[in-house]
Write a structure and sequence with these properties.
The chain has two helices and seven strands; from the N terminus they run ββαβββββα. A five-stranded antiparallel sheet has the order 5-2-4-3-7. It has a two-stranded antiparallel ribbon with strand order 1-6. It starts with 59 loop residues before the first strand and ends in a 6-residue tail after the last helix. 24% of the residues are buried. The protein is globular. Helix 1 packs across helix 2. The protein is α+β, with helices and mostly antiparallel strands.
Length: 171
């Protein structure tokens, strides 16, 4: 538990806790999951009106940001560290839930060399309301603020040490 007294659940792909965090689950209207799309007309399984889902918004390619991608557990540990330091920018979970992506300033991909992670030029940024955001865009205009690349590198190294010490490594 955290200081708020509310239990904090971390979703694990395929676990019962994944249902506790709907923001990290795939969009029900996603066409890659047969039988989960919208149903035209009719009533829902509880007798109420059938819910119609909007098609997921397309991701927008942003060239003024790069993307650092790491495994889910490693990335969530780094998010916790960065949030404690008040240095975490926008973070996005992948569609399949296996990785998280940190938005970093453009040009980071040229000098990024950290085992267990990859950095690519550009970023595919979904709408600010997309449920895949771990740390959503905020502020005026809902801009996706980047995380400083060297602060992220430090947090990823610290997260790897923490996970390894806890028996969840090596990274």
């Amino acid at each position: 538990m955290m200081a708020t007294g509310l239990p904090q659940h971390r979703p694990v792909v395929g676990s019962v806790f994944a249902a506790a965090s709907p923001a990290l689950l795939p969009d029900p209207a996603d066409e890659r999951f047969p039988g989960r799309g919208p149903v035209e007309g009719g009533r829902g399984s509880c007798g109420g009106p059938q819910r119609k889902y909007a098609a997921p918004a397309e991701d927008t390619l942003v060239t003024d940001r790069d993307t650092v991608t790491v495994a889910l557990r490693h990335g969530l540990e780094a998010v916790d560290i960065l949030r404690l330091r008040r240095a975490c920018g926008a973070v996005l979970q992948s569609r399949d839930g296996s990785t998280v992506a940190f938005l970093v300033p453009a040009g980071t991909w040229e000098t990024w060399h950290l085992p267990g992670s990859s950095c690519t030029a550009g970023a595919l940024v979904p709408a600010a309301t997309d449920p895949r955001w771990v740390i959503p865009p905020s502020g005026a205009g809902r801009a996706a603020r980047p995380t400083d690349a060297w602060v992220l590198r430090s947090a990823l190294c610290e997260a790897a040490c923490t996970l390894t010490a806890g028996g969840l490594g090596p990274f």
